[in-house]
Hints:
The protein is α/β, with parallel strands linked by helices. It folds into three domains: about 10-170, Ferritin, CATH 1.20.1260.30; about 175-465, Rossmann fold (3-Layer(aba) Sandwich); about 480-515. Helices cover about 45% and strands about 10% of the residues. It has 17 helices and eleven strands. The protein has helices spanning about 10-25, 30-60, 70-75, 85-90, 100-110, 130-140, 150-170, 185-195, 210-220, 235-250, 260-265, 310-320, 345-350, 415-430, 450-455, 465, 480-515; strands at about 200, 230-235, 255-260, 275-280, 320-330, 355-360, 375-380, 395-400, 405, 415, 445-450. α8 (about 185-195) runs parallel beside α14. The longest helix is centred in the last third of the chain and has 36 residues, at about 480-515.
Amino acid sequence: MAKQTNNAGTTLGFEAQLWLAAKKLWGNMEPSEYKHVFLGLIFLKYISDAFEVKRAELLEDDLADAEDPEEYLAENVFWVPREARWSHLQANAKRPEIGKHIDNAMLAIESNNASLKGVLPKNYARQEINKVMLGELIDLVSGIGMAEKADRSRDILGRVYEYFLGGFAGAEGKRGGEFYTPRSVVRLLVEILEPYKGRVYDPCCGSGGMFVQSEKFVEEHGGRIGDIAIYGQESNATTWRLAKMNLAVRGIDADIRWNNEGSFHKDELPDLKADFILANPPFNFSDWGGDRLREDARWTFGVPPAGNANYAWLQHIHHHLAPNGTAGVVLANGSMSTATSGEGDIRRALIEADAVDCMIALPGQLFYSTQIPACLWFLTRNKNPGGGLRDRRGEVLFIDARKLGHMADRTRKEFPDEDIALIADTYHAWRGAPDATPYQDEPGFSKSATIEEIREHNHVLTPGRYVGAPPSEEDDVPFEERFAELKATLVGQFAEADKLSDLIRKKLEEINADE
Length: 515
């Protein structure tokens, strides 16, 4: 990771240095608690900075009223009352009642911005939070992006929010995986699906990382925020709040729904047909209440078992795809081969309906929450959509990426940019994208298999069964040369064995002589 520079925020090292500084302040507080303390302050700083930029513009306009909330809401800028502005909090940072000031700021913002109602944390005044620590955190956050222009400062705050979500996920371990999908996994999904325009949906959206990366992809490829319409659902209220703040900090407008029953039992968007779906559902979720949904219309390919939600997620996601929609789903490896409780029959039906587009085996240690090996399923409604892409009906692409990735720290791997590009480029070449190189199978890595070949493997979708072994480095060496080398090696080993045998006999004779 790059080192910190004088121009705060211009390298990833800035986020890392800020993370280390913030860690020193949290003391004995649990990461799951401190997470909301710090991220709430980042959110306050962001919306206050955005407000002040707009306010400065209005003050220069003789016909505008800088204190009229409608002037801000019309520009999709949150209205921030005086008592909630960052300057007010910074001025009171060293006062013992600073926690109360922050809570009042959160309440004032919620009461003036309907889309934030019930979203912001409002428990900074509680006794367990050290007020000196709060003041130091405000000082720390106040310095973010100070050397930058206003727009750049807000972008840095968004980056910090995202970086800290990953940091807290790592600190919380298994629980962290409930709200955060590792950034490199999300980037891989986004680079493969390429959500340029249209409706993007995540039925278990966590803290909103899939949406943030989708918007980044659009911007990096010449599009604009707003080219995609974002929809999501989350059953954990705390995680839903994180998602709402995460998207607001990035300036992303989204329709994110919450209820504690979840997408299976109370689908908040029953009529949505999405162009792109990205999801990382809970692995092998057993307590999903499937016994109450035996007759559900979403189970087009078969009733999923009550003891495992993997195939319920796949069918829920397929149900929500638009006619030319595609989906990328993270699931446990067992989903590719299990035959218990009718799952094998559902998988066969998905394959025979040509709904499976691509399967990718991932390396281990990618996730904060589990060491269970995972894979990516790509589903589609139409393998012959036109638009310059080739007709790939009756085919499935298999990619074995288990040997890719590198260790990001002692316990976790991540994909570097070149690995993400390799996998994504292989998929786009297979689809026949106009600007892609022609696709060719690569033994040990990728294979385009027909449905007939998959039938021969009993509809098991494990990529290792199809891609085969990588070519040996010795394959280009003539047989005569290789045989001569092997023969010489074997002769030498026989000679060494004879020497050892002679030495052992001599030692045994010496022992007998001594006796």
